[in-house]
Amino acid sequence: MSRFPAVRMRRLRRTPALRSLNFKVRVHPSDLVYPVFVDERAKSPVPINSMPGCFRFPLARLVKEVGQALELGIRAILLFGVPSRKDEVGSSAFAKNGVVQRAVRVLKREFGEDLAVMTDVCMCQYTTHGHCGVVRNGRVDNDSTLEMLKRIAVSHAQAGADFVAPSSMMDGQVRAIREALDDSGFKEVGIMAYSAKFASCFYGPFREAADSKPRFGDRRSYQMGYGRPSEALREMELDLAEGADILMIKPALAYLDLLCLAKSRFNVPIAAYNVSGEYSMVKAAARLGWIDEREAVVEILTAIKRAGADLIISYHAREAIPWLSRL
């Protein structure tokens, strides 16, 4: 009779070489999407106070910033625009020479097919009221907003975007955009849908970064509540039926269960957005010496991938590359 314990799990953990051999879930640079803010007003990189290490970049600096990310192995970016002018209907969002449209043209001219350019399609940072759609009588009007989202998406495609990413959480937005793209001759442009986007407290730093805080009320009438997982799955099913190529869960860390469910249910790429608040909490704790930033970031990104993410949108993307390579 064998002596207890016959099975010794620690055998696989005994040395660094053995631990590395059995470390099976690894995040690669090609898994990461780097979010980039381009600011029409900026003359030099503008630090984002609530997101240490992140900046709003002027158009003139964009090629250098994205080129450095590409050299690290990051092959995709998600562009957010900060315009110089806002109005009630966010018309700068679909202007031919808008900040995102110019940025896309510059990046595609410089990097071509080596870089996947994704663009956020929303209105919040372009409107004077800060909401994600057209406001009528104090409420966001769904169907009027769809018409605006269609114009924004087509303008991004005309500039050369590879993927558009509608984030306003309007009903029918994926179908409206898919039809608009197809009718305009952009059948090859993909849609990464913010399908399960929750009304989360973790977006605060982003609202400083994009100057997109609502001037009244909040976004709970269109973003989801976090207590009903079946609603998130239904949103994803609808977006897939309407023509989405990639489904996204946002935020990532508080919704890993939904990420796992989505991966098991849908046979399409699943993206997770490791959002600004999640980024800033790590930065703040690391600055106070409470956690090891490198260890925390690698553990977080690995957990997101382990839960089922094929793509991870993260503000840690650039700095994480050398940390990931040491595993």
Biggest sheet statistics: 8 strands, parallel, barrel
Task: Label the structural class.
Answer: alpha/beta
- Return Rg in Å: 20 Å
Q: Give the helix proportion (percent range).
A: 25-40%
Q: Quick one: CATH superfamily?
A: Aldolase class I
Query: What's the N-to-C terminus distance?
Result: 39 Å
Tally of separate helices: 11
Shape: globular
Spell the H/E element sequence: HEEEHEHEEEHEHEHHEHEHHEH
Largest sheet: spatial strand order? 1-4-5-8-9-10-11-12
Can you count the beta strands? Answer: 12
CATH architecture classification name? Alpha-Beta Barrel
Taken together, the total number of domains comes to: 1
Task: Give a short synopsis of this structure.
This protein is 39% helix and 18% strand.
What does this structure look like?
There is one protein chain. The protein has 327 residues and is of the alpha/beta class. It has a single domain (25-324), classed as Aldolase class I (TIM Barrel, Alpha-Beta Barrel). It is 39% helix and 18% strand. It is built from 11 helices and 12 strands. The protein has an 8-stranded parallel barrel, surrounded by 8 helices. The chain has a two-stranded antiparallel ribbon with strand order 6-7. β8, α5 and β9 (190-197) form a beta-alpha-beta unit.
Set down the secondary structure blueprint:
Elements: H1 16-21, E1 32-39, E2 46-47, E3 55-57, H2 59-71, E4 76-82, H3 99-111, E5 116-121, E6 134-136, E7 139-141, H4 142-159, E8 163-166, H5 173-183, E9 190-197, H6 204-209, H7 229-242, E10 246-250, H8 256-265, E11 270-274, H9 276-287, H10 293-307, E12 311-314, H11 317-324
Parallel strand pairs: 1-3, 1-4, 1-12, 4-5, 5-8, 8-9, 9-10, 10-11, 11-12
Antiparallel strand pairs: 2-3, 6-7
Helix pairs in contact: 2-3, 3-4, 4-5
